[in-house]
């Protein structure tokens, strides 16, 4: 059509910028003209071509070298569990007993061992000093003063024991002050009057001593554990009631152990079940984090 309207019609039908024509094709916004967006490797061959590992390359290699997603998260968790297991076995080998770590629940050993500290213990026969009581591996405070044997700021060993040999009782971590023999009136022969609260042998059920063993005391306590209403409230501690000797402490880390024990007590399940549940929860978190990675 001629005239102004015809000119406008011809302008609309003609390509304005030269992009349309027989050679024109849609182009990807980020790629070459005519190419489709990269959808990633679709087969094991595609994965190998791109330098990635596919399960067809072998499950062991796939688990070891996969670089993203849930598989990488599983590998990270498995590595962490393996490291914890190795450390646990190493501690057990050094300690000679299980568990090798105990959490301190009270302040009876302050200032040398504080509440919520985590303490590494060994079997009483491990690392025994030549001045230890025969057959026990424990050096008492009385003997340690003469030989300069110190643990946690004072002479003598700090021991973990079961009060009165009761397996249902909570273990106590206190210092072994001196050794007594059966029928010994230890209040008169060995006790420090400052730790007796004015009591005499007649006031104490375990005096004379009912058997051979240790008289113990918390460093922060005023009196021996063998006195009524004092400390652990136990009779003379037999050597077989001693479950370990304290060697070193980690401040405040015992809170984790106490929290773990609380969960176990409230849930009514064993240690293994709580450990598995905790590991599964950690696995879910790691997998979710891996899935969110770009």
Notes on the structure:
The two termini are 57 Å apart. The chain folds into two domains: 55-92 and 269-292, no CATH class; 98-252, no CATH class. The strands form two sheets. The chain has a six-stranded antiparallel beta sheet. Strands 3-4 form a two-stranded antiparallel sheet. With 294 residues, the protein is of the alpha+beta class. The longest helix is centred in the N-terminal third of the chain and has 27 residues, at 69-95. It is elongated. The protein has eight helices and eight strands.
Molecular shape: elongated
The structural class is alpha+beta
The biggest beta sheet is recorded as: 6 strands, antiparallel
The H-and-E topology, N to C, reads as HHHHEEHEEEEHEEHH
Strand order of the largest sheet: 1-2-8-5-6-7
Question: What descriptive keywords fit this protein?
Answer:
single chain; 294 residues; alpha+beta; six-stranded antiparallel β-sheet; two-stranded antiparallel sheet; 8 helices; 8 strands; elongated; disordered N terminus; serine-type endopeptidase activity; membrane; Peptidase_S26B
Quick recap of the structure?
One of its GO terms (biological process) is signal peptide processing. This protein is of the alpha+beta class and 294 residues long. The protein has helices at residues 3-13, 44-49, 59-65, 69-95, 141-147, 186-189, 254-267, 271-292, and strands at 101-103, 118-122, 150-151, 154-155, 158-161, 172-180, 213-217, 242-250.
């Amino acid at each position: 059509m001629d005239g102004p309207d015809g000119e406008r019609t011809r302008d609309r039908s003609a390509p304005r910028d030269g992009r349309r024509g027989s050679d024109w094709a849609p182009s990807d916004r980020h790629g070459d003209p005519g190419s489709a967006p990269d959808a990633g490797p679709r087969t094991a061959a595609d994965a190998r071509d791109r330098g990635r590992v596919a399960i067809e390359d072998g499950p062991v290699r796939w688990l070891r070298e996969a670089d993203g997603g849930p598989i990488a998260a599983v590998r990270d968790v498995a590595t962490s569990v393996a490291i914890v297991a190795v450390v646990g076995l190493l501690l057990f080998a050094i300690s000679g007993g299980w568990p090798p770590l105990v959490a301190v629940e009270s302040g009876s050993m302050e200032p040398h061992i504080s509440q919520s500290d985590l303490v590494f213990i060994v079997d009483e026969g491990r690392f025994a000093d030549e001045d230890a009581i025969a057959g026990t591996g424990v050096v008492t405070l009385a003997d340690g003063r003469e030989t300069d044997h110190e643990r946690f700021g004072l002479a003598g060993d700090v021991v973990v024991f079961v009060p009165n040999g009761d397996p249902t009782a909570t273990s106590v971590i206190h210092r072994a002050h001196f050794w007594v023999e059966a029928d010994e009136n230890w209040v008169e022969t060995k006790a420090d009057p400052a730790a007796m609260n004015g009591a005499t042998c007649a006031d104490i059920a375990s005096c004379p001593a009912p058997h051979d063993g240790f008289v113990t005391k918390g460093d922060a306590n005023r009196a021996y554990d063998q006195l009524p209403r004092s400390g652990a409230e136990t009779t003379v501690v037999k050597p077989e009631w001693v479950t370990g000797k304290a060697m070193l402490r980690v401040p405040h880390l015992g809170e984790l152990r106490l929290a773990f024990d609380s969960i176990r007590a409230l849930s009514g399940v064993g240690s293994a079940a709580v450990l598995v549940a905790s590991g599964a929860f950690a696995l879910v978190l790691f997998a979710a984090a891996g899935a969110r990675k770009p």
